């Protein structure tokens, strides 16, 4: 996705070029390091180069999400599993949100990007929120389950959050200290129970600092956490985190990790909310940095699945929630160690299969609809396409020169 800065004079490392994102989440582009011949970035459907590190990170983060969801129904009487659950919940969404913010740096109010936001975020939200509501009504036998687009159920909150975060990106890019402001917003939300459940705004605001952090990061920050010294240090850091989580598991209210409630709603004094926001933000950054340090930078068997992580994220909920609503997790043997292992393997296998290209092709109508019929033609976009076509021959040499400089 990025190139190391090895040029001299006044030449600077170029930012990643604009690229069509997959289902509302921007896609990786150029490699942050000079790739070896066998590890060069591959091209996605749009013809732009994808970076293996970020595809790997997205896939592994979504696997952690599925594992955490599968452990929720079986962790009640297992202190070690609850500790592992708390550690995973400290880092999996922050890791995914930071990457989403990083690739949203160039977002503006250009018509083509607004259309992409509608087709890649708004439309999937409407379809999946409706589908999940009907799913809960008929599979969970709750006939009074309403279909409300203002009250996200289960996984669809992330699409609401992504829509708000992306729309406000130009504002955060203009602030002198955006991360500090985002933390203040998150702390204020943690003491404001009157925010309510509309669009899951508590989560939108309390997870906001991670997205804004992604907006402020540069390629060299990811290179720093991928050094061998960080990879080695990550081992004792995770060990200590797991030990602390094991010690705190009986007393810790897991709801703090969901960022969906104010402090007063968790039976805590109001002043605990801001402290927990800061404490969890610090812990999440440390563990997320350790997670990134272990993500391979070369192409792996699962690298191509990074383009379909939002498919796996939204679809795996039907499997796990269906099993939960049907009472399948109430089987006593599933709460034993072997049962937990089988549940984990099922979640990992399911989310992996749901990220594959065949599944993407089947559900692309809902995740990435084209919808040209719904939008007015943009003369500027057509001009940009004509310019790109007419200048492709001459631009190839200039692009090759830029790649040599930035490599």
TrEMBL record:
<feature type="compositionally biased region" description="Polar residues">
    <location>
        <begin position="1"/>
        <end position="11"/>
    </location>
</feature>
<dbReference type="Pfam" id="PF01757">
    <property type="entry name" value="Acyl_transf_3"/>
</dbReference>
<feature type="domain" description="Acyltransferase 3">
    <location>
        <begin position="52"/>
        <end position="349"/>
    </location>
</feature>
<protein>
    <recommendedName>
        <fullName>Acyltransferase 3 domain-containing protein</fullName>
    </recommendedName>
</protein>
<dbReference type="InterPro" id="IPR002656">
    <property type="entry name" value="Acyl_transf_3_dom"/>
</dbReference>
<dbReference type="GO" id="GO:0016747">
    <property type="term" value="F:acyltransferase activity, transferring groups other than amino-acyl groups"/>
</dbReference>
<feature type="transmembrane region" description="Helical">
    <location>
        <begin position="116"/>
        <end position="135"/>
    </location>
</feature>
<keyword id="KW-0812">Transmembrane</keyword>
<dbReference type="InterPro" id="IPR052734">
    <property type="entry name" value="Nod_factor_acetyltransferase"/>
</dbReference>
<feature type="transmembrane region" description="Helical">
    <location>
        <begin position="339"/>
        <end position="359"/>
    </location>
</feature>
<feature type="compositionally biased region" description="Basic and acidic residues">
    <location>
        <begin position="30"/>
        <end position="49"/>
    </location>
</feature>
<feature type="transmembrane region" description="Helical">
    <location>
        <begin position="229"/>
        <end position="249"/>
    </location>
</feature>
<feature type="region of interest" description="Disordered">
    <location>
        <begin position="1"/>
        <end position="49"/>
    </location>
</feature>
<feature type="transmembrane region" description="Helical">
    <location>
        <begin position="83"/>
        <end position="104"/>
    </location>
</feature>
<feature type="region of interest" description="Disordered">
    <location>
        <begin position="381"/>
        <end position="407"/>
    </location>
</feature>
<feature type="transmembrane region" description="Helical">
    <location>
        <begin position="301"/>
        <end position="319"/>
    </location>
</feature>
<keyword id="KW-0472">Membrane</keyword>
<feature type="transmembrane region" description="Helical">
    <location>
        <begin position="147"/>
        <end position="165"/>
    </location>
</feature>
<feature type="transmembrane region" description="Helical">
    <location>
        <begin position="269"/>
        <end position="294"/>
    </location>
</feature>
<keyword id="KW-1133">Transmembrane helix</keyword>
